[in-house]
Every structure is written in structure tokens, then in C-alpha cells.
Design brief:
Length: 353
């Protein structure tokens, strides 16, 4: 890439950030809160500080996943029906209620946190289609790759914030005070959703859209490309869910390290993933999505298999970094493909869901 091309890329990214900044920030805050709650609060604070069953975290994550699976398709159409602004308000409100309820439940009825996890899954199924749909309505067709790369970078920053910051809080701050982090993050996300208007493009087309007719739903479901892509997303989500559920037990039982030490060992993976996001998007534009997605996920899978067999600290740090780089390389191709398959604006949220 020559100097002029690099400058145009930078200017283009700045324009995308300017138009989609509220959406990117909401995505960052929602991800950071989720990572803190499910990796730090439930897997570390709950069993180690409050001496509650460590099975609660796994069941809560399962409830989250089941609720999200059952409501994701409908959640996307809720975004189409209400508009992205009201869908973001509804979704972030549900997420805020779920996380806020975990604070008292951890003391008085910890097993009810499983129900809060289900509410969080419902909120997530409404929020994320609205995030992608709102982003798609704010950027041009040739800027969607930049938007998805920036949203992936926001997720990487959320990983560092939720995991790294959570590890620090876990070392110095009690549970009740630490829960101010996810609750505050979601309160800010809700405030942004309340203050952010519809984009000009969406405002021009949104007029209390009706729910799609059964024929439209059948067309969406029967698309071979969308069906195959949905299976890919489901497989990725299952893998990420398993990694999330096993996160703290891996550090405690396999690596035999504290949460802070585990976060420090895995920090290079987050950095490597973040550094590979932009090159991944550029390579996908040049060589095609599949030629980037396949080696990226293959490298990640091989590294995860190696991590399950070897626990030498130096090996874990290096291999996790390679896994993070592979995942960062492939992740923009997922989001870009999803937005490319999202179709017309009136059913975009449902298709993304």
C-alpha cells in the first residue's frame, strides 16, 4: 500500500468512527460488562470470595446461551420492528437489569443468578442485531469492512478492560464494589442508546415496520448461504461458550495460578488478536473471505488443542498469543460476511439475528 492509499484508509476509518461512534461504544461497553460478569464475577468472586458453588457460573452461562439461542431470530425482527434505537434501549435495559440483580442475588439466593443469566441472554439477542443493523445504516457499502474491523477492535479492547481490569479489581476490591463496573458500563450504554437518534438512512425508511410475512421468513431461513453461515456462527459460539465456561477452572486447576497471573499470561493473546484485526480485514478484501477465515480458525483450533495438553507457562503464553492472532485474523471475515448477507434494511435485523 502506498502513502496515498494508507492516508485514504486512515481518513476512511476516521469517517466511519465519526458516524458510528455511539454504536461502537455501546458494543464495547456491553462486551466489557459481559466479560467481567461471566469471567470474573461468577467464576472468581462467587466461589473464591463469597464461597458459593462454582457450578453456578456454568449454569448461568448455559442459561444465557439457551435464552440467546431461543430468542436470537426473533430478537433480530424486534430490531426491525422497533427500529435500532428502541431495540438498543430495550436490549441494554434488559442487560442492566440482569447484571444489577446479580448483586443482591449473590448474597441471598445465588442459584437465582441462573435466571439472571437467561435475562442477559434475552437482552443480548436484542442488542447485537441492533448494533450491527445500526452500524450498517450509518456506513456506505464499501465501508462495512472498516466498521466490522472497528467493532472487532472494540471487542478486543473490551476483553482487555473486562479481563485485565477485572483481574485488578478482584485483587483489591470486594465483590459488591466491583459490580459497580458492569452495572456502570451498562448504564452508560443505555444512556447512549437513549441519546443516539436513528441514522438519516434508517429514519427515512423506518415507519413502524410490520413484522415480516411467513413467506419472507421462509425465504430468509431457506437461503443456503445463510443456513451454512448460521451453522458456522453456531459452531463458533459453542467454542467460545466452552472457553468462557472453562476459563477460571483452566487457570486454577491446569495452570495452578491466581486470576491476576492468568490474566497476565493471556494478555498477549488479546494484544495479538487486536493487532491482526485490521490486516485480517485487508487480506479478506484482497484474497477473499474464505482464504482468510479458514487458516485463521484452523490456527486457533490447533493452538487450543495444544493448550489443553501442555501447561508450561512460557508455552501457554506463546501458544495463546498465536491462537489470539488467528482468531483476530478470522473474526472480521465473520462480521463482514454477516453484514453482506443481511439484505434489505426492512429485514436486516432479523437476518443478522
Amino acid at each position: 500500500m502506498n502513502a496515498r492509499g494508507a492516508w485514504q484508509t486512515i481518513v476512511g476509518a476516521r469517517n466511519v468512527i465519526r458516524r458510528a461512534a455511539p454504536v461502537l461504544v455501546i458494543g464495547f461497553l456491553v462486551d466489557a460488562a459481559f466479560l467481567f460478569v461471566f469471567l470474573i464475577a461468577l467464576q472468581s468472586y462467587l466461589p473464591e470470595s463469597l464461597h458459593k458453588s462454582d457450578a453456578i457460573a456454568g449454569y448461568a452461562l448455559a442459561a444465557f446461551g439457551l435464552a440467546k439461542l431461543l430468542t436470537q431470530f426473533g430478537g433480530g425482527f424486534v430490531s426491525d420492528r422497533l427500529g435500532t434505537r428502541r431495540a438498543l434501549i430495550l436490549g441494554t435495559t434488559l442487560l442492566l437489569v440482569a447484571d444489577a440483580s446479580m448483586l443482591p442475588l449473590a448474597h441471598v439466593a445465588p442459584w437465582l443468578i441462573i435466571g439472571a443469566g437467561a435475562i442477559e441472554g434475552l437482552g443480548s439477542s436484542v442488542t447485537w442485531p441492533a448494533v450491527y443493523s445500526a452500524g450498517a445504516s450509518r456506513v456506505a457499502a464499501d465501508e462495512k469492512g472498516r466498521f466490522t474491523a472497528l467493532l472487532t477492535l472494540a471487542t478486543g479492547c473490551a476483553l482487555v478492560t473486562g479481563l485485565g481490569g477485572g483481574g485488578v479489581l478482584n485483587h483489591f476490591v470486594p465483590f459488591d464494589a466491583a459490580m459497580a463496573f458492569p452495572i456502570g458500563a451498562l448504564a452508560i450504554a443505555l444512556t447512549l442508546a437513549l441519546l443516539t437518534p436513528l441514522s438519516a438512512g434508517e429514519a427515512a425508511t423506518h415507519a413502524e415496520r410490520e413484522l415480516p410475512a411467513p413467506r419472507e421468513v421462509r425465504t430468509i431461513i431457506s437461503s443456503p448461504q445463510r443456513a451454512v453461515f448460521s451453522l458456522l456462527i453456531l459452531s463458533e459460539a459453542m467454542a467460545l461458550g466452552a472457553l468462557t465456561a472453562a476459563f477460571r477452572s483452566y487457570g486454577r486447576d491446569v495452570l495452578d495460578v491466581s486470576l491476576a497471573r492468568q490474566a497476565l499470561m493471556l494478555a498477549p493473546a488479546a494484544v495479538a488478536g487486536g493487532l491482526m484485526v485490521v490486516p485480517g480485514g485487508a487480506l479478506a478484501d484482497r484474497f477473499g473471505v474464505r482464504r482468510v477465515m479458514a487458516p485463521g480458525f484452523a490456527a486457533t483450533g490447533i493452538c487450543l488443542l495444544l493448550l489443553s495438553r501442555f501447561s508450561d507457562p512460557a508455552f501457554v503464553v506463546a501458544t495463546a498469543a498465536v491462537a489470539g492472532a488467528g482468531f483476530g485474523l478470522a473474526q472480521p471475515t465473520i462480521a463482514a460476511t454477516m453484514m453482506a448477507l443481511s439484505g434489505p434494511s426492512k429485514t436486516r435485523g432479523g437476518i443478522i439475528g
